Here is the input.
Amino acid sequence: MGGQFISQRITVGIRSREQQPSARGPNGLGRTRGALLMSCMLLGLAANGAAWADGTVAAKPAEAEAAGREVAPPPQSPQPQKAEPETVGRPAEVPASGPKLVVPATDATKPSTAERKGDTRTATRDVKDSKNLSVPQRVLPADVAQKIGRRIWLNEAGGRRDAITSWNAGEEFASLGIGHFIWYPVTAKPPFEEGFPGLVAFLRKGKTPLPSWLDKPQVPPCPWTSRADFKRNFNSPQMRQLRQFLLDTMAEQTQFLVARAQGAMDKILANTPDNAERERIVAQYARVVRASEDLYPLIDYINFKGEGTNPSETAVDKETGQRQGWGLKQVLLKMNGTTTEPKAVLAEYSDAVQVVLQQRVRNLPSNRIWEAGWLRRAETYRRPIAQLDQVPERAPRRSSRYRADNTQF
Here is the structure.
């Protein structure tokens, strides 16, 4: 379009000059030469304008290179995914075809681009890069999340409605909800990580209606100060309201469990400064994620025994004198396999859980009363959750007086 406009102006200019009388003399000859020179310049501009309008003129090498960079930007490390309620258990948003696996990268030992170029980074940045590049995530359909929640309720309370509010003998806290989330009274000294206030905050953020005495910006402490007080008020109006609220929000509690599991690796990697341990944890975690169709083994154990990063959730090993935890971090560090066959991976994970639990019982002999139930629970990690009601459970491992190879201590 621009070329045609310039050409029209040139044609008109030439015609107007042709209609003028011929110039005579030196001054006239000079004016004629100047007009011819100007016409040549305008013709050149017209040709260039037409070429640019048609897109036939090639870009300069530097401009072409810049354009290529705009079309294909260099790969960037994906940002860590935060666990949000919207990613879990929403039927309208989550496809029901099956769990989706999103794996940014799987090779934990492969150096990043900046490291290959010799870029120096701090240890904190290395931890973040390793986490971003290597930790897989899943999004669970609502029906799968519901099955996981029901199974965890069976594990914690045997599926009994009254047991959704309980206070175990010898403990200083109430255990509430499908995950038996810990809730301390104001008089207790918390040795374990408290879960119930986090659940209430999660439900409040998700606009779930709460009992008025719980619907506070700061979740109050447990109103019952001891197990005896809890039992005396077991059928009080406040307790009955709490129990019904927990029964009505089982789906939302499952969302909370899944969200916690998805954020567990952030805490574990931040708590693991050693590069070799970090790579091992990520590699074994990725194996379990790929082997498990529903992530039940990870979700349940994190709710059961935590991430393994709380210093207060450790005990001194009587043989080594070192403090040992019993969370997911310790389980993953017990694993060293490389096979990707799902059945073998889940069997190794279940074995590692049992070894860690037996280690805890050895370090804390008072926990021996729970050992048989703990080992039965670990056995459920060997199979997909859909098969747990169909296949009889294996006989549990022997007591903690035996090593993993069945030789006696």
